[in-house]
């Protein structure tokens, strides 16, 4: 049985996720939608009410990830405009635009780890509070690369090359696998990468078509 229908986007909806940020006293009643109309929209599904619209991307918004810290207050988005944006869900503001990919960004993730790097409070930019804790963004693209971005410096931290086609999915490892990234590609392979060395650890072959999604086993 269909519970609710949400209308508002002017083009295809490319991705949906439940918002992990509990704001406006709506608790867990908020869904986030991405679309080819270049917007990100938040809906209160309990009251069928649109709460927010994020504008800024110049192309289809294809992927998002809520921050694993600060209760999901920060949102990372990847777009066909070749950029990654970091947003503050509380204020609806775009905090930074990360440029570097040569083609569409298909997937993004935010690291669950904190590095040992220290920041100078006197030199903070408006995302220094987040970045100072060592969090990083990972992105996969049609340019066949995986890139790591340092939130504090807003600079590209590393580039992983090895896939022979678009990178559809990426995922940071957690716990003992926290220094690794898993990726799936149109080249039919799944690859495991070492973040510290920047080297490829292993290639998993066997699929006969595109790999759309990857995930670490929780066991």
UniProtKB/TrEMBL annotation:
<dbReference type="InterPro" id="IPR015943">
    <property type="entry name" value="WD40/YVTN_repeat-like_dom_sf"/>
</dbReference>
<protein>
    <submittedName>
        <fullName>WD-40 repeat protein</fullName>
    </submittedName>
</protein>
<dbReference type="InterPro" id="IPR001680">
    <property type="entry name" value="WD40_rpt"/>
</dbReference>
<keyword id="KW-0853">WD repeat</keyword>
<keyword id="KW-0677">Repeat</keyword>
<dbReference type="InterPro" id="IPR036322">
    <property type="entry name" value="WD40_repeat_dom_sf"/>
</dbReference>
<dbReference type="InterPro" id="IPR020472">
    <property type="entry name" value="WD40_PAC1"/>
</dbReference>
<dbReference type="Pfam" id="PF00400">
    <property type="entry name" value="WD40"/>
</dbReference>
<feature type="repeat" description="WD">
    <location>
        <begin position="160"/>
        <end position="203"/>
    </location>
</feature>
<dbReference type="InterPro" id="IPR019775">
    <property type="entry name" value="WD40_repeat_CS"/>
</dbReference>
<feature type="repeat" description="WD">
    <location>
        <begin position="6"/>
        <end position="53"/>
    </location>
</feature>
<feature type="repeat" description="WD">
    <location>
        <begin position="54"/>
        <end position="97"/>
    </location>
</feature>
<feature type="repeat" description="WD">
    <location>
        <begin position="133"/>
        <end position="159"/>
    </location>
</feature>
């Amino acid at each position: 049985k269909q519970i609710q229908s949400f209308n508002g986007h002017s083009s295809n909806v490319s991705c949906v996720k439940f918002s992990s940020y509990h704001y406006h006293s709506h608790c867990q009643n908020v869904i986030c939608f991405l679309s080819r109309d270049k917007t990100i929209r938040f809906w209160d599904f309990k009251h069928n009410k649109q709460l927010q619209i994020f504008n800024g991307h110049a192309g289809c918004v294809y992927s998002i990830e809520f921050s694993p810290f600060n209760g999901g207050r920060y949102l990372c988005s990847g777009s066909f405009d070749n950029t990654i944006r970091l947003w503050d869900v509380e204020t609806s503001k775009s905090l930074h635009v990360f440029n570097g990919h040569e083609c569409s960004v298909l997937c993004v993730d935010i690291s669950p780890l904190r590095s040992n790097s220290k920041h100078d409070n006197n030199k903070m930019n408006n995302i220094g509070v987040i970045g100072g804790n060592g969090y990083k963004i990972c992105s996969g693209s049609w340019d066949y690369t995986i890139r790591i971005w340092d939130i504090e410096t807003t600079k590209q931290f590393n580039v992983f090359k090895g896939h022979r086609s678009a990178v559809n999915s990426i995922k940071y490892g957690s716990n003992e696998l926290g220094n690794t990234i898993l990726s799936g590609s149109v080249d039919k392979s799944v690859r495991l990468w070492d973040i510290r060395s920047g080297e490829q650890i292993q290639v998993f072959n066997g699929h006969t078509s595109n790999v759309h999604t990857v995930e670490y086993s929780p066991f």
